[in-house]
Design goal:
41% of the residues lie in helices and 20% in strands. With 179 residues, the chain is an alpha/beta fold.
């Protein structure tokens, strides 16, 4: 099986989660992991049976150009101790989905969000899932959020949860393919 794990990351947490998910998916096929601003992301998606797509939650949903600009400004504030990812100034998941010429038949969506109640933070993953299904993909599993602390670190056990979720996505993909 060919699997593409594609992510958008502002400060590194979503990238870290994406690689943990990819590790969980490794037993299920050939996995290519790439940032939305890496040309490999489109090529890998074109030939994938499964696309796992994720990004950070901004203003209750997927990032927008204005929210990405705000994140870049935060990284310039030395009191916040944030380091902007080298690929962050590019496009986001929203634009990447819109511009995708071919969407795989199966998909799964994830996000990172602040460790507060969902009603307060929202979650990009549901919006990502909706955008992918609107383009014709079928969601293999319920979208998942991975939590980030107030000081921009991954909450306890989030890497283990991401690895386990990757395994769950792989098992769900097998169920779709074998039925």
């Amino acid at each position: 099986m060919s699997i593409a794990v594609v992510y958008e990351s502002m400060f590194g947490n979503t990238r870290t989660i994406a690689f943990a998910i990819a590790e969980g998916l490794a037993p299920f096929g050939v996995v290519v992991t790439a940032n939305v601003n890496d040309p490999r992301s489109t090529g890998a998606t074109r030939c994938a049976e499964l696309l796992v797509l994720g990004g950070p939650t901004h203003v209750h949903g997927m990032t927008r150009p204005a929210s990405r600009e705000e994140a870049a400004r935060w990284s310039k504030d030395s009191t916040k101790h944030l380091i902007l990812e080298p690929s962050a100034p590019g496009i986001g998941v929203r634009e990447w989905i819109r511009d995708l010429d071919l969407v795989p038949a199966l998909s799964a969506a994830f996000d990172t969000r602040v460790d507060k109640a969902h009603i307060i933070t929202g979650a990009a993953s549901g919006h990502i899932e909706h955008a992918l299904t609107k383009r014709g993909s079928r969601s293999a599993i319920t979208p998942e959020s991975f939590l980030v602390t107030a000081d921009n670190g991954l909450a306890n056990d989030e890497l283990d949860r991401a690895l386990a979720w990757g395994i769950s996505v792989g098992k769900a993909m097998e169920q779709f393919i074998h039925h």
